[in-house]
Amino acid sequence: LCSVLLCSLILCLMFADVMAVDKIEPNRRTNIIKTEGEPVTLSCSYESDSEYVRLYWYRQYHNEEPQYLLHQGARSSLTRHSSEPRFISSTSRIFTELFISSVTVSDSALYYCALRVKAH
């Protein structure tokens, strides 16, 4: 049997504020602990008056730079997949979610959601 430290994953979710009018924040600010193989969903809520919003997901390992995972248009109903097949993102007009289908120890990291408003 695995020890608690080896079988559990800690996923942290942070947020990035962009402007006073355009903002994004996690729906849950606590650590998420999962066992390997379990699915996990990370979620951020956002506000923007623009119709040209892109939502991004990043992962950052300890003492490393954030790594880009994926992005998609906020007003798009399409689900986006990253180059990593276990990562899927979906959006609505008020939130974005990152779904990891089967977490592994290597998924233990700090996750960021970010919002970018594109020029018309």
Automatic annotation (TrEMBL):
Entry keyword set: Adaptive immunity, Immunity, Immunoglobulin domain, Receptor, Signal, T cell receptor
Name the source's superkingdom. Answer: Eukaryota
- A Gene Ontology term for the protein's cellular component: T cell receptor complex
Domain Ig-like positions: 26-120
**Which N-terminal stretch is annotated as signal sequence?**
1-20
SUPFAM superfamilies in the cross-refs = Immunoglobulin
Q: Which PROSITE patterns does the entry link to?
A: IG_LIKE (PS50835)
Signal recorded as keyword: yes
Q: Name one GO biological process term.
A: adaptive immune response
By its UniProt entry, which PANTHER family does this protein fall under?
A: T CELL RECEPTOR ALPHA VARIABLE 16, T-CELL RECEPTOR ALPHA CHAIN V REGION
What is this protein called in UniProt? Answer: Ig-like domain-containing protein
